[in-house]
TrEMBL record, chains A, B:
UniProt lineage: Bacteria, Pseudomonadati, Pseudomonadota, Alphaproteobacteria, Rhodospirillales
Residue span(s) of domain Peptidase M24: 161-367
SUPFAM superfamilies given in the database record: Creatinase/aminopeptidase, Creatinase/prolidase N-terminal domain
Protein name per UniProt: Xaa-Pro dipeptidase
Signal peptide: none
Source species of the chain: Hypericibacter terrae
InterPro entries in the record: Creatin/AminoP/Spt16_N, Creatinase/aminopeptidase-like, Creatinase_N, Pept_M24, Peptidase_M24B
Record-annotated Creatinase N-terminal domain positions: 13-152
One protein family per Pfam: Creatinase_N
PANTHER family in the cross-refs: AMINOPEPTIDASE, XAA-PRO AMINOPEPTIDASE P-RELATED
Length: 383, 383
């Protein structure tokens, strides 16, 4: 069995989820977030691209409803014993099959939580679920229940986070090795991803961000790689991934020589990064991390060049998104707690001049403040 | 502007979507599938992990509502001129902002189609959308509208599909080069992904499937790589990806020597693959492709060892899923049409003996039948 946590740790997580269900007066939870399934049972798949539900009762009972290709997947990767299969066909109606299974558990007229905020539960499937369970039981959104548990990492999880961070550092070393005038972006990406996969890591939950020239001011992946110019700028935002735990880094690398203003922007970015780390303190609302970023940017005349958010939690996220809940934006009241892992990204994009500067680190919240999970300096590296 | 199709081709696609809206009596479409956005406008992002909507009216008008990090992304990758931004915050309500925009377009009491079957529209956001637009306009599921248009590829698209197929072939060559007794799965993955990225390709919309030993009987990715034993079996299912177009291949590679039964299973797999290709004919229901797979497996005593589906359409899919609509399962009435691209995967897993055999090719439906988009033989390769 390819379990990456002890059965005891997984059982403890389910026990805490059950306690939260009971505290909320819920009789069970319909789980659609793959990260929740992995967290509670070890179950590891991308089968959530079709209708798939893990039920966890307030009595601790749990079963999985999925398609045939995931039967063995669940057997090989998880502690789930009770695996049920629905079959594709023009008349397939897995939500109705789920209803019948819930009826067998005497859940008629009971209250169930639902993870509605899940890529694995498309709008269409959510509406079918609601229609199937209408007049059967009361449903309420409990998307946050397991996500809240996942937010603070256990010692066993932090081991994997640190391994992910080491893979991210190696990927940055590969970027420094391969970037330079005339380099092909595809070769840079291949080197970065390669060192992670060779290190036993996983694909990231979303693509690495790579952009140069005017596209160095983008912060999403897009298709179509180019060669770097003799004088250019290269923005990279990427994750080391180990056991699906993500640790991110971000850098803009001037090619040839820094563009006008880029040296100053780098100083501001590093100052902002340090201010954000100082603001990330146990007990303080994480919205203050954004405020620190904004304050430093604004003080240096970069108000128009900053983003509306400056990072987010990281964990065992699955495609299409490594950005875990919650996010650093103004006013976010969630408190920082030791054991949380966040990515702080500092983005300063001067649209008027077409100049980018970024920096970023993954940090672990400690009892005193936070610890950067990277051995790579934040200094400007020109290639 | 990094457009990968001419503005005329993109305009033609929108004109066909508009014609379908009019034919269905719809006044507009709320688009949440990233593949639809890419298809209609070129817009290329993973920003759909947050609330994001492209509106296309039956009058041809279109605008995008997204978050700030995607403003430049839309400007740099698409033909969308009208880009509107919603801002994160504890009180953020993008669905209500969307309603206000629709009201400006005088869509009160009109009929709008919605792409509810979208990873970019989670159950929670769909329910918020429905609540925001209740009593404002009539909504109906039109998830299939653009997907139907996307199903038949244009000549310009087929150029990219063929490039993707070439990258898949190179990845298989890398697998043959690196697989063998003692090889580390992570090194194999790195070599396969590396040749695709160096060739200007993209990340796949879901992870490559790699499994050995007992996990060679899985057909999903999972974390945790191992070294191959002196006698082993390695199952690989992967995609070359170019401009987000996918071309898949699948193979099981015996390591050291074939396991008992594996030679016979390979013969059956190849016979089934050929039978599927013969069954994929313009005008015939694609469910018959599954029937051909089932018939060959059953005739050779592998009824218990086969799947409930044997492949699916391929196209410009985005994470978390490269499996496009529609799928080869029994009774699927969708007709094959020239210009469609399908992945036929033949999977025979003997659970009792723990032996796997797979094969698979991407094919293009032609006027006469179908054409395999791979130059790699389907012969058994033992490493």
């Amino acid at each position: 069995m390819a379990l990456h946590f002890t059965s005891e740790e997984l059982a403890g997580r389910r026990a805490r989820a059950v306690a939260m269900l009971q505290a909320r007066g819920l009789d069970g939870l319909l789980i659609f977030r793959q990260e929740s399934m992995f967290y509670l049972t070890g179950y590891d798949t991308f089968g959530y691209v079709f209708f798939q539900c893990l039920y966890l009762g307030a009595d601790g009972r749990f079963f999985l409803l999925t398609r045939a290709p995931d039967l063995r997947q669940a057997q090989h990767t998880s502690v789930i014993d009770d695996i049920r299969i629905w079959v594709d066909g023009p008349e397939a109606s897995p939500a109705l099959e789920l209803k019948a299974m819930l009826a067998e558990l005497h859940l008629h007229n009971k209250r169930l939580g639902v993870e509605y905020e899940a890529y694995g539960l498309t709008g269409r499937n959510a509406m079918r679920l609601n229609a199937a369970l209408e007049d059967f039981c009361k449903l309420e959104d409990a998307s946050d229940l397991v996500s809240r548990l996942r937010l603070v990492k256990s010692p066993a999880e932090i081991v994997y986070v640190r391994q992910a961070a080491e893979l991210a550092d190696r990927a940055l070393e590969e970027a420094h090795r391969t970037a330079g005038p005339g380099a092909f972006e595809g070769d840079i990406l291949a080197a970065m991803q390669g060192v992670i996969l060779r290190g036993g890591g996983d694909d990231p939950a979303n693509e690495f961000i790579i952009g140069s020239g005017r596209d160095a001011l983008l912060c999403r992946y897009f298709t179509g790689r180019r060669k770097l110019d003799p004088k250019d700028q290269l923005t990279l935002e990427f994750a080391g991934v180990y056991r699906h735990y993500h640790a991110c880094l971000m850098r803009t690398i001037p090619i040839g020589e820094p563009l006008p203003g880029q040296l100053e922007m780098h100083k501001v970015a590093v100052e902002a990064l340090e201010a954000c780390k100082t603001a990330l303190k146990p007990g303080r609302p994480i919205g203050e991390v954004f405020d620190a970023y904004a304050r430093v940017c604004d003080a240096h005349g970069h108000r128009e060049n900053r983003m509306n958010a400056t990072g987010y939690s990281l964990g065992t996220t699955f495609a299409p998104n490594w950005m875990d809940w919650p996010m650093f934006y103004h006013g976010n009241p969630e408190p920082a707690v030791p054991g949380q892992v966040f990515f702080i990204h500092i983005i300063i994009f001067d649209s008027a001049k077409g100049v980018a500067m970024t920096n970023g680190q993954t940090v672990l919240v400690t009892e005193q403040g936070c610890e950067a999970l990277s051995r790579m300096p934040v200094d400007l590296v020109v290639k």
